[in-house]
């Protein structure tokens, strides 16, 4: 495959699209006192109480320092609680609060509507194909990163 310039770069196109969708979601989540990054982490915490930071980072696609910063912000807003881990005193078990759970219930439809609006004009099959392509690309990059760190 031959790629000429940024306008033909898949990585550039994905980055631009991500920033645009993220900006739209940011403006729509503002009333709930959440950023898109915080929303992704809060959603993952709400799926299962008692996760440690490392699990949350992996499940939300973020590195540990970023996850720690986001968890601190979510805790300051009263959306989550952290307590020392039962098995490892250096890590924290994270649980969602009632306020956090209510916020997830309000934010989830906002996120779904934002994605639906951004994907207007795509058929369900096109949307599914896009997700399959992105998953394959992610798998390739994970494999390559793993090979390069060995």
TrEMBL record:
Keywords annotated in UniProt: DNA-binding, Transcription, Transcription regulation
SMART domains, per database record: HTH_MARR
Classification via Pfam families: MarR
Biological process annotations from GO: response to stress
TM region(s), chain numbering: none
A GO term for molecular function: DNA-binding transcription factor activity
Domain named HTH marR-type: residues: 7-139
Annotated InterPro entries: HTH_MarR-typ, MarR/SlyA-like, WH-like_DNA-bd_sf, WH_DNA-bd_sf
UniProt-listed PANTHER family: TRANSCRIPTIONAL REGULATOR SLYA, TRANSCRIPTIONAL REGULATOR, MARR FAMILY
Protein name per its UniProtKB record: MarR family transcriptional regulator
Taxonomic lineage of the native organism: Bacteria, Bacillati, Bacillota, Bacilli, Bacillales
């Amino acid at each position: 495959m031959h790629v000429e310039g940024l306008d033909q770069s898949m990585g550039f196109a994905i980055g631009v699209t991500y920033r645009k969708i993220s900006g739209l979601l940011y403006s729509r989540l503002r009333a709930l006192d959440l950023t898109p990054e915080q929303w992704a982490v809060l959603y993952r915490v709400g799926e299962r109480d008692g996760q440690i930071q490392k699990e949350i980072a992996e499940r939300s696609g973020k590195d540990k320092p970023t996850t720690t910063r986001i968890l601190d912000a979510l805790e300051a807003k009263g959306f989550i609680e952290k307590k020392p881990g039962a098995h490892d005193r250096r890590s924290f078990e994270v649980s969602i609060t009632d306020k956090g759970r209510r916020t997830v219930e309000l934010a989830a439809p906002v996120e779904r509507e934002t994605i639906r609006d951004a994907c207007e004009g795509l058929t369900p099959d096109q949307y599914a194909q896009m997700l399959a392509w992105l998953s394959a690309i992610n798998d390739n990059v994970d494999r390559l990163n793993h090979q390069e760190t060995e």
